[in-house]
Amino acid sequence: MNPQTPKQCLKVQAIGMDGRKSAVFRMAFKMYSKRQFLLLEAGETEPADLAVADLDSPEAAAQLEDFVREHPGVPVLCTSVDPTTAQPWPVLRKPIRMETLFPALEALLTQTQAPKAPPQTPSAATHEPLVAAPAQPVAPADPAHQRPTPQTVPSPARQDIAANEVPPRPAPPPVVTLLPESVRTFDPEVGLLGLLLRVRRDKIPAAITRGRDDLVFILDPEADRVRTTLGDADIQTLCSEGEALHLRALKTSDGLDPREERELTLQALLWQVAAWSARGRLSQRIPLNGVVQLRQWPNLTRLPVLPESLRLSAFFARSPASPILTVKILQVQPSDLFNFLAAADSLELLRYGKESSASASKKPEDAGASAEESAKATPRRGFLGRILAKIAGL
Amino acid sequence: MKEDNKIVFTGPVGVGKTSAIAALSDVPIISTDARASDMTINRKGHTTVAMDYGILNLEGGGKVHLYGTPGQERFDFMWEILTTGGLGLILMLDNTRPNPKKDMQFFLHAFRDYIVDVPVVIGISKTDLQARPSPRDYADMLPEVTADLRMLNPVPPIFEVDGRNKEDVKNLVLALLYSIDPGIGAGR
Question: Which domain holds residue A308?
Fold first, then answer.
């Protein structure tokens, strides 16, 4: 049985490096997946395929000279804070980064490097980090590994056919607009939401009853705790205006059926009840043309999911904006925006108008400008979109 | 645009960086022997220190490299090689440590040059064991901690997370992506 040939392992000799620097290179080599580099141990006699020398260490010059004499033809990559140091070898400017180290090593492997006896005038190449590796994979100059270049340019006849077969572009999504006359509003201070907001403000344990006697919530705002026997569907029903709910101080005799009782955080309840109370309407606290901004992100991993909440949090954390501008720029559904704003406001996360803050460094018009800049960066947005799709699909 | 990119995970030892990267990576993560107690010379004669590496392969080509920095503070010299370019920094903090505020200050300052250009997202772990500081507490601390820093996103996402919970880790990364550009995937 012939074992599969493992990925070629290139042995690298460290010159002028202490334990810490060697550890950094070992870590970097482990993180590099295109090729296997292995840093040789001190005292190891195995022949090196290349060397990396830290020119800034006192012993580097002598060690490098010895290495070159004993291993002629082995390429060397030097590193230094001063890449203009006269060297026959390419010099990588410190601090070393993953993004420059490996292209430099790959470039070194493609070159036929022979040591030159007299130090030369530094070439332009030593003033700059080495350029990135070529797009095609690096391969040794071995005829056995070369393949004929495939025919990539189609014949003229095939080009005509290809031109006629261009698939139609998909229709762009409909533009979302927000017509002021279509916006409905709601009062967050009434109904279940209004009662919960009062409890949060007053910071006193309380009970909410349906009618006079039907205990539905026991609340401890200081502990951020709520106990209830209601399921989500029942709570959503309570959010409809017209339900007769009453708020009173908690009595020692108050209790819920332990078999049906469940516990939530007050924050999570407020967040959800605000969105259910909004039902796609704009809170009367928020002017349609007034600017709002997030003073903090909501703790979205521990709150009920609302559509577009991540996107809207990122947008409003970045700069203040009005609901009208937000719909225009982000193309979110107004109902999702209004539900999010109601939920964020219920947790006192919104900052209104021109309130000054060290973090509110951007002006409302910056939101439009920055969004336009983002829209222009189409290749980057495409790449980010692919990552988004990947993460969302995990 | 170069279509390989990276996300750096950092934070103290044991906070959940390895679990978080493992939750995302398409390949088994590469970790050194997690001898987290010391940067010791092992019997092979070289140093070992815990660090992690994973890859997200994107449809149509391109990769996102996931780097988990060694968490011990005295290994901060090893972080520099990772901190250029990339999409952003995910800082995970452990609520059961004696001084999480100090940890937040340390790591944000350690990456001060990096977070000028890329956004940071903060994940608070082990809140089931120690509820305070809450994410709101951390947000309140942030202006004082970052008074001498320039951050691309001075109001970063701060979420409770469990590094073993894939949904939590996904939300950290999604928040990072939207912090770069809230418009990605818009209008679908």
Answer: 284-392
